[in-house]
Amino acid sequence: MLRRSTIMILALSLSLGWTSETIAQVSDPSESSEYLIKAGFIYNFAKFVEWPSGAFAEPDSPIVIGVLGTDPFGTILDRIVEDKKIGSRGFVVKRLKWGKDLRDLKECKILFVSSSEKPHIDDFLQMVKGLPILTVGETPGFAERGGMIRFTLEDNRVRFEVNVEAARQAELSISSRLLTLARIISPSAASARKPG
Question: What is the mean pLDDT of the chain?
């Protein structure tokens, strides 16, 4: 199983341009391969998304990745982004709780919404609608309800779908290279489906 996961990560890394040291840093057999892959995707999302010019306070402000709710990554996400930079921007990972740290949401440029937050998803998505925050989740219906990227599992493989319209409303530009790997949720499909 671990060998298969390593092969999947290697194939994914080649398609998205990961470095070999990233793979070497996270080849710990005790870590969940699913969340290792999801953490790698989150890091790579930052490479393939452009934020509006006013989204960052300074040219070297870090890319803050927030994890809202129960953290399924443990230390994996921290280690994936440790010492990494995109241009002059490093990374900071923050853990947030519903109702307590919501004022800190505006600092985030990428926000992973844990499945533990399912009861609050509609409220949360309404709060951040239009803000330059790349919202990423794994709860069924996340992208249809206004989230930007939703992880799915298909045949034990991590895939993702993108709500391009939600990203556009937040003035985020997602690279076509990333979109070719995604299942696109069209605005008509997103509005036609009811929250579940």
Answer: 83
Q: Is 59 exposed, middle or buried (0-12, 13-18, 19+ CB in 10 A)?
A: exposed
pLDDT band at 124 (very low <50, low <70, confident <90, very high): confident
Beta-bridge partners for 129: none
**Domain range enclosing 81:** 2-192
Give the CA-trace dihedral at 173, 193, 34, 103, to 10 degrees: 60
- Number of structural domains (the chain) is 1
HSE-CB at 100 with a 13 A cutoff on CA atoms is 5
Nearest to 83 by CA among 53, 35, 34, 43: 43
- Name the residue among 58, 65, 63, 52 with its Cα closest to residue 149: 65
